[in-house]
Amino acid sequence: MKRWSWVLVLGFFVLWLGLGVLVLLGVVLPHFERSDIAVLYRARALFSHHLPYFQLRIEYPVLLGWWMWATAWAPGFSGYLTANVLGLSAAAAAITVLLHRLRPAFYQWWTVFPLLFAFSFVNWDLLGILALMGAWDAWTRQRPAWTGVWLAVGTATKLFPVIAWPFMAYAWWRAGRRSHAARMTLWALFVWLILNAPEMVGAWRNWSWFWVFNFERSSSTDLFWLLHLNHTLGRRGIDGLSLLIVGGVTLWALRRMAAGWDAPAATAAVMTGFFIVNKVFSPQYMLWVFASGVLAGWTPGTLGVLALGGLFDWTTHFAALQIPRELRLGAIHAARMAAVGVVAGVAARYGVLVLALARDRGPGRSGEAAAPP
User: Distance between CA atoms of 100 and 8, rounded to whole angstroms?
Assistant: First the structure.
């Protein structure tokens, strides 16, 4: 790769992540209050340095809880933010390196993705995406043990990487490498248990809070909320409907693999479908969809539509709803503006995701060979 190309990549990272820091600090949007990284520092009293799960209840998987605890040891709130910005920026750069190795004809789209500035520091999703890309890298290199390790690390960080497991396993199974599929699965289970066992044994109620919290939380600003199904079906009904749809999409994707799709394409499709029907949608989930789409070789048009839709979603959910008080024309006007903004953002989000699925035709459009099983 030419040196100037890497200079261009570095330039985009400096631009996007620099803007993200300004947003996080409130320089660009003074009323920006939606960063979980910033909010949870005080809400969970991370400055007290209580041991996560053993002394402190955290609604995230274990590795992310320990990450929050470790970065909180930096001096003060500014030190904590700096530690997270540096760690997440390093994760974004590492994702770029892995995507360059996995899909050299597509990785540039990740570097020019404008939502890196919007969502990189809203939550810790980049850490989970890095683990997912590490699993794909090990998978393409025929290293089942390392694939399982990375899947376990990703699942213990953000849970979503588990979506890739059935397609990785099925690809190896169909290729006659059944021992690879079994080793990957066993290593993933083993490492996940090792990572979770201390908390499960020593602090079960706080460890299980992640599952309880997500089961009990209500549907809000998502597809079911938009369709007014959250009151009709209730939490259990929404959970059951989501599970049924995701299971159906997974079976459909496995059938598509039998017809010629590769595992990254199937994973990207199910990842997108999962976020469409998940009862809670955070706009930074677009990072997962985009990274999976780049790996799957989605067309530049599809990736561009995702970027534009994500920017509109960010604007309506984070920027428009943080209008300074002095610019409001009154509480009623502000409430109406907020309602219109939320509905418009939700509609744009799901329209974009559905369009991405409709436009995707699996691997092979660019002439680049699919990742080997």
Answer: 14
